[in-house]
Fold this sequence. Notes:
The chain is of the alpha/beta class.
Amino acid sequence: MKEFWNMMSRYVRPYGKYLGGSVILSIFSAIFNIFSFTLIIPILRILFKLEEGVYNYIPWDADVSIKEKALGNLYAFVSEFMQIHGAGSTLFALCLFLCVITLLKTACYFGASAVMVPIRTGIVKDLRMQLYRKLLSLPIGFFSAERRGDIIARMSGDVQEVENSITASIEMLLKNPILIIFYMGTLFFISWKLTVFVLVFAPLMLLVMSAIARKLKATSTEAQALWSDTMSQVDETLGGLRVIKAFLAETLMIRRFGHVTEAMRRKNNRVWIRQASAHPVSEFLGTVMISIVMGFGGSLILSSHNFIDAPTFIFYMVMLYSVIQPIKDLARAAYGIPKGLASMERIDRILNAENPIREAEHPLKVEGLKEGLRFEKVCFSYEDGKQVLRDIDLDIKKGQTVAIVGASGAGKSTLVDLIPRFWDPDGGRITLDGMPLTELSIASLRSLVGYVNQEPILFNDSIFRNIAFARPEASREEVEQAARIANAHDFIMEKEEGYETNIGDRGVKLSGGQRQRLSIARAVLKNPPILILDEATASLDTESERAVQEALEHLMSGRTTIAIAHRLSTIKNADVIIVMDEGRIVEKGKHEELLAKDGYYKKLNDMQAL
Length: 610
């Protein structure tokens, strides 16, 4: 339970006023409930004509127990009312008063539940927002080590499980202890000897419940892991649908999915069976306890009329049965909380993940690029320990176009990813205008950089919002101007809804060239001084490449550009061409100079010429 209370302290604090209101209403509900059941005694006495004694009012400062004063004065009032109005009218009045008290009790009970709703929904919303913010703050490296489907499962299934089990249990854990305290106090008030006898059997129920709850948490963790596997395969299937169909692999994928879902079914069977056992087990144990108390108390009534009279004993049994329901709810919470905590542990793996990309204590803000970028003896390795970059020395001056070429795996993309600090180097340093990147504000550094990737990253939204993604406040005229520079305005206006056309998931309603030109328009609108082109035309056909290349030339004009190139023909006019092999810079120069060296670049050029 320690983990549960830690979670409560993290997320419930903003909703303290609702919590206080629920506590107050729960207390009133318990008081009205006890008072309504108290009326059972005089009602039974009147119905069965057990009322033979004469009662007089007892002063509240009299030297007798509070129990005697309370019951004596209640009976005195009922007796006096009966003498004046008769037994029938008294019975009717008591029943009417019982209805009023019950109405107040149920109203308070409903109110206590209603004010808990903002807490339940608020905790889930806050948790989901915190998780989403954390995902956006984590570095690229975190997502290369995690499956996307698993992250989606934690955002959906695990958060939903927290809502269904833990937050639903807050109400039980708040109201039920209050009810138990008041009801147990009443039981002690009626007969402390009988109540002590009851408490001998209560720990047995708690021991059984806690044992099953411990097993439930372990099984729930395994079930949620299998849910992540399921989501991961769904994500892979949607992303690779063309390949699956092209290789006639539908049966294979169905079989794989069937194995995962069957394993999850078996695990969930165990979870739900154990969870379903909460009610019958608590019902059985409660009935056993009621039966034992009824037998014990009944025998005492039959043997000794001085112990407790029959109407009072019936009232005692009603109150005892009333205290069992809150105990059952607590038992249900004991089942639900471990299941939710298993999901919370998976969520915490994201929330507690460390971000190695740290902001400087007093970060410097930069407004633009004045001189250029410099790599000094830069080395980098991924988590697996394999070194990707070795002793990189590179000067990129303001306004230059620097092209980076090399075979796949040479470290080209990793090199440019160090500029906006998607990663930090293991050794050496990178400076901007002489200032180390690690001393700059991450936000201001990234505001200087524009990206155009090989695979355009677009969102399921309108064309206008995709172009204005980096500058949501941009006007229609600014967006249209950016689209014209990117050679995108004409095809946009051919669409029925123009700039308001929804492009579908990842821009699926557009061609590859159109998606790339929207990506370029977005970079144009941002107007960054540093532009990174990651094989921006590699996946396009000749006609689309020509249109995109023309748009890129407009975009590159007057900017510092770092272009990763696969087709050497697209970077012939670069100011500097960097040739990389196995994480090192092996050649550097202009196109003609590198060809004259008859080295690695010449080899790449000849292979493409063939």
